[in-house]
User: Fold this.
Amino acid sequence: MKKIATLLFVVAIVLTGCTGDQGPMGPPGPPGNTGTPGEDGGIIVSSAFEIIIDFNADNKFSYTENYGSDIEVLPSDITLVYRLWETRDGKDVWRLMPQELNFENGNLVYNFDFTQTYVRIFLNGSTNFETLGQEWTQDQVFRVVVVPADNVDGIDLFNLDEVMQSYNIENFEMK
Assistant:
Protein backbone atom coordinates (compact mmCIF):
# COMPACT_ATOMS: atom_id res chain seq x y z
CA MET A 1 0.00 0.00 0.00
CA LYS A 2 2.93 2.34 0.82
CA LYS A 3 4.41 1.73 -2.64
CA ILE A 4 1.12 2.71 -4.39
CA ALA A 5 0.78 5.88 -2.30
CA THR A 6 4.41 6.80 -2.99
CA LEU A 7 3.96 6.13 -6.72
CA LEU A 8 0.82 8.30 -6.86
CA PHE A 9 2.61 11.07 -4.98
CA VAL A 10 5.56 11.01 -7.39
CA VAL A 11 3.24 10.99 -10.45
CA ALA A 12 1.29 13.96 -9.03
CA ILE A 13 4.50 15.93 -8.44
CA VAL A 14 5.81 15.17 -11.95
CA LEU A 15 2.54 16.16 -13.64
CA THR A 16 2.07 19.40 -11.69
CA GLY A 17 5.71 20.40 -11.81
CA CYS A 18 6.12 20.24 -15.58
CA THR A 19 5.82 23.22 -17.84
CA GLY A 20 5.36 23.28 -21.56
CA ASP A 21 5.00 25.68 -24.42
CA GLN A 22 2.63 28.58 -23.80
CA GLY A 23 0.27 27.66 -26.62
CA PRO A 24 -1.35 29.72 -29.34
CA MET A 25 -2.72 33.23 -28.82
CA GLY A 26 -6.46 33.36 -28.08
CA PRO A 27 -8.98 35.20 -30.22
CA PRO A 28 -9.02 39.00 -30.02
CA GLY A 29 -11.48 40.63 -27.62
CA PRO A 30 -14.21 43.06 -28.61
CA PRO A 31 -13.09 46.43 -29.97
CA GLY A 32 -12.61 48.98 -27.23
CA ASN A 33 -11.00 52.30 -26.68
CA THR A 34 -9.07 53.52 -29.73
CA GLY A 35 -6.63 55.34 -27.43
CA THR A 36 -3.65 53.87 -25.67
CA PRO A 37 -3.64 50.06 -25.42
CA GLY A 38 -4.51 48.94 -21.91
CA GLU A 39 -6.80 51.88 -21.18
CA ASP A 40 -10.37 51.26 -20.11
CA GLY A 41 -13.09 51.64 -22.73
CA GLY A 42 -15.64 54.42 -22.86
CA ILE A 43 -18.12 55.19 -20.12
CA ILE A 44 -21.66 53.96 -20.62
CA VAL A 45 -24.10 56.81 -20.05
CA SER A 46 -27.79 56.10 -19.68
CA SER A 47 -30.66 58.23 -20.86
CA ALA A 48 -32.86 59.72 -18.17
CA PHE A 49 -35.60 62.28 -17.78
CA GLU A 50 -38.16 63.50 -15.27
CA ILE A 51 -41.92 63.93 -15.85
CA ILE A 52 -44.67 65.53 -13.80
CA ILE A 53 -48.07 63.94 -14.40
CA ASP A 54 -51.67 64.75 -13.48
CA PHE A 55 -53.77 61.57 -13.51
CA ASN A 56 -57.50 62.04 -14.19
CA ALA A 57 -60.51 60.49 -15.90
CA ASP A 58 -59.79 62.45 -19.11
CA ASN A 59 -56.44 60.69 -19.60
CA LYS A 60 -57.83 57.43 -18.18
CA PHE A 61 -55.38 57.71 -15.29
CA SER A 62 -52.53 56.98 -17.70
CA TYR A 63 -49.77 58.95 -19.40
CA THR A 64 -47.57 57.92 -22.35
CA GLU A 65 -44.25 59.63 -23.05
CA ASN A 66 -42.40 59.01 -26.32
CA TYR A 67 -38.64 58.83 -25.81
CA GLY A 68 -38.03 61.18 -28.71
CA SER A 69 -35.11 61.37 -31.09
CA ASP A 70 -32.61 62.33 -28.37
CA ILE A 71 -32.96 58.96 -26.60
CA GLU A 72 -31.96 55.77 -28.41
CA VAL A 73 -33.49 52.66 -26.85
CA LEU A 74 -32.12 49.35 -28.06
CA PRO A 75 -34.23 46.17 -28.01
CA SER A 76 -32.06 44.83 -25.17
CA ASP A 77 -32.36 48.00 -23.01
CA ILE A 78 -34.64 48.19 -20.00
CA THR A 79 -36.57 51.13 -18.64
CA LEU A 80 -36.84 51.84 -14.92
CA VAL A 81 -39.35 54.30 -13.46
CA TYR A 82 -39.08 55.84 -10.00
CA ARG A 83 -41.79 57.82 -8.18
CA LEU A 84 -40.94 60.71 -5.87
CA TRP A 85 -42.27 59.20 -2.65
CA GLU A 86 -41.49 61.92 -0.13
CA THR A 87 -38.95 64.51 0.90
CA ARG A 88 -37.10 63.70 4.12
CA ASP A 89 -34.63 66.11 5.72
CA GLY A 90 -34.59 68.13 2.49
CA LYS A 91 -33.71 65.10 0.34
CA ASP A 92 -35.96 63.47 -2.22
CA VAL A 93 -36.84 59.83 -1.55
CA TRP A 94 -37.46 57.81 -4.74
CA ARG A 95 -39.08 54.39 -5.01
CA LEU A 96 -38.80 52.00 -7.94
CA MET A 97 -42.19 51.20 -9.44
CA PRO A 98 -44.51 49.45 -9.23
CA GLN A 99 -45.52 50.84 -5.83
CA GLU A 100 -48.71 49.84 -4.02
CA LEU A 101 -50.77 51.75 -1.48
CA ASN A 102 -53.64 50.21 0.49
CA PHE A 103 -56.76 52.17 1.41
CA GLU A 104 -59.91 51.14 3.27
CA ASN A 105 -61.80 50.85 -0.04
CA GLY A 106 -59.09 49.07 -2.05
CA ASN A 107 -55.56 49.52 -3.31
CA LEU A 108 -53.73 51.86 -5.66
CA VAL A 109 -50.72 50.76 -7.70
CA TYR A 110 -48.44 53.18 -9.54
CA ASN A 111 -47.22 51.09 -12.46
CA PHE A 112 -45.58 51.36 -15.88
CA ASP A 113 -44.77 49.52 -19.04
CA PHE A 114 -42.39 50.35 -21.85
CA THR A 115 -41.44 49.61 -25.43
CA GLN A 116 -38.52 50.67 -27.56
CA THR A 117 -40.33 53.93 -28.41
CA TYR A 118 -42.28 54.97 -25.29
CA VAL A 119 -42.91 54.53 -21.59
CA ARG A 120 -46.45 54.48 -20.19
CA ILE A 121 -47.13 55.33 -16.54
CA PHE A 122 -50.55 54.48 -15.17
CA LEU A 123 -52.66 53.89 -12.09
CA ASN A 124 -53.86 50.39 -11.39
CA GLY A 125 -55.71 48.80 -8.49
CA SER A 126 -59.13 48.21 -6.98
CA THR A 127 -59.88 51.63 -5.49
CA ASN A 128 -62.03 54.19 -7.33
CA PHE A 129 -59.40 56.55 -8.77
CA GLU A 130 -61.91 59.39 -9.09
CA THR A 131 -62.33 59.50 -5.30
CA LEU A 132 -58.58 59.72 -4.58
CA GLY A 133 -57.22 62.93 -3.11
CA GLN A 134 -55.07 65.22 -5.24
CA GLU A 135 -51.96 64.15 -3.32
CA TRP A 136 -52.25 60.78 -5.13
CA THR A 137 -53.16 62.00 -8.62
CA GLN A 138 -51.90 65.56 -9.24
CA ASP A 139 -48.33 66.78 -9.79
CA GLN A 140 -46.89 63.28 -9.50
CA VAL A 141 -43.14 63.31 -10.18
CA PHE A 142 -41.44 60.37 -11.93
CA ARG A 143 -37.90 59.71 -13.06
CA VAL A 144 -37.43 57.49 -16.10
CA VAL A 145 -34.05 55.81 -16.64
CA VAL A 146 -33.18 53.72 -19.72
CA VAL A 147 -30.28 51.37 -19.00
CA PRO A 148 -28.42 48.76 -21.04
CA ALA A 149 -29.69 45.37 -19.80
CA ASP A 150 -26.18 43.91 -20.08
CA ASN A 151 -25.00 46.17 -17.27
CA VAL A 152 -27.57 45.75 -14.49
CA ASP A 153 -25.82 42.88 -12.68
CA GLY A 154 -24.72 43.88 -9.19
CA ILE A 155 -26.61 47.18 -9.15
CA ASP A 156 -29.37 47.79 -6.59
CA LEU A 157 -32.05 48.96 -9.02
CA PHE A 158 -34.29 49.98 -6.10
CA ASN A 159 -31.73 52.65 -5.16
CA LEU A 160 -31.99 55.54 -7.63
CA ASP A 161 -28.79 57.13 -6.31
CA GLU A 162 -26.82 53.93 -7.06
CA VAL A 163 -28.33 53.67 -10.55
CA MET A 164 -27.48 57.34 -11.23
CA GLN A 165 -23.90 56.84 -10.05
CA SER A 166 -23.42 53.57 -11.96
CA TYR A 167 -24.61 55.10 -15.24
CA ASN A 168 -23.08 58.56 -14.81
CA ILE A 169 -26.43 60.36 -14.69
CA GLU A 170 -25.85 63.83 -13.35
CA ASN A 171 -29.20 65.48 -14.01
CA PHE A 172 -32.65 64.84 -15.40
CA GLU A 173 -34.18 66.65 -18.34
CA MET A 174 -37.75 67.78 -17.66
CA LYS A 175 -40.26 66.52 -20.23
